[in-house]
Amino acid sequence: MTPPAPLPVAPDVHLVRSLPDGGGPLRVAINSLVIGGEEPVLVDTGAATGRDDWWRQVEGLVAPVDVRWIFLSHDDADHHGNLFEALERCPRATLVASGAIAQRLAAHRRLPLERCRWVNDGESFAAGGRDLVAVRPPAYDAPTTRGLFDVTSGVYWAADCFGLPVPHAVDEVGQLDPDVQVEGSLLWHRLLSPWVVDVDPVRWTAAIGRVAALDPQVLASAHGPLVLRRDVARALDLLGDLPGMPPAPLPGQADLEAEVAALAALAPPTPA
Questions:
Q1: Quick one: pLDDT band at residue 263, thresholds 50, 70, 90?
Q2: C-alpha angle 215/118/135, rounded to 5°?
Q3: CATH number of the structural domain spanning residue 167
């Protein structure tokens, strides 16, 4: 397989990519973002299982010693997998997170509070000449979640929102069959946020409207292809269909047994 390479998103903004094989017909990406400029920013730090590839891509874009900010969208393992190593290798970086994230990560390791800055939903910070605004996405699976809007480039980092399982690697959703985007988006968001089928439609529309009001040029997700300007309205409209839908189907014991059997069939024979 060709090693993953960073994908340019906008001037001085790159997606750091990984597309692990989930063992099925569809695969879900684990992405993060690097924002360059006078004070480079790492946006999430990927999964520990892909550490070597993650660092290879990051160091191809910015020297760790030059990184000034690390923004952590939430505390899921596929977003903070390389966080503590990044804090060691990026000695000038300030961690932008929240007090709640620090409390939740304390079970793993204590954050260096003297290097932290708490930025809550709706608040902003400046990285060199760039204004970066924390805006919670409509759909999320962790209460600490905040997205990040780069005012300079118009790129909105949506954390887990706008994720999309894909049958093959693509850069942006326009490269997929439209049915794949529709079915994948509706399934993904019901799995990510099971509560969304019961949410009040008026409040849900308002949550979607917060992102629409940013007028994003690109939606970048940790778990899907880029959504470029021409497809942003469609991606937002798909979210609007979620309230009132039935819950997403979940795998059960029969599915587990079938997967175990399939793995056993692929295993090399035991020597006599």
A1: confident
A2: 15
A3: 3.60.15.10
Is 11 contained in some domain? Answer: yes
Is residue 123 within 8 Å of 134, Cβ to Cβ? Answer: yes
pTM of the predicted structure, to 2 decimals = 0.94
Specify whether the CB–CB gap between 134 and 147 falls below 8 A: yes
Q: Would 248 be classed as within a structural domain?
A: no
> How many other CB atoms are found less than 10 A from the CB of residue 15?
26
DSSP string, 128-155: TTEEEEEE--SS-SSTT--EEEETTTTE
DSSP letter at 218? Answer: E
Sheet holding 124-127, edge to edge: 124-127, 130-135, 147-150, 155-157, 218-220, 227-228
Structure tokens at 184: 């994948």
Tokens of 150: 């780069």
Find the length of the chain.
Answer: 272
Q: For the segment 218-248, what is each residue's pLDDT rounded down to a tens digit?
A: 999 999 999 999 999 999 999 999 999 999 9
Q: How far apart are CA 184 and CA 75, in angstroms?
A: 24
Taking residue 190's Cβ as centre, other Cβ atoms within 10 Å add up to 20
- In a domain, residue 214? The reply is yes
Residue 265 located in a structural domain: no
Domain that holds residue 173: 7-240
The domain tally of the chain equals: 1
Quote the CA–CA distance of 67 and 176 in Å, as a whole number: 34
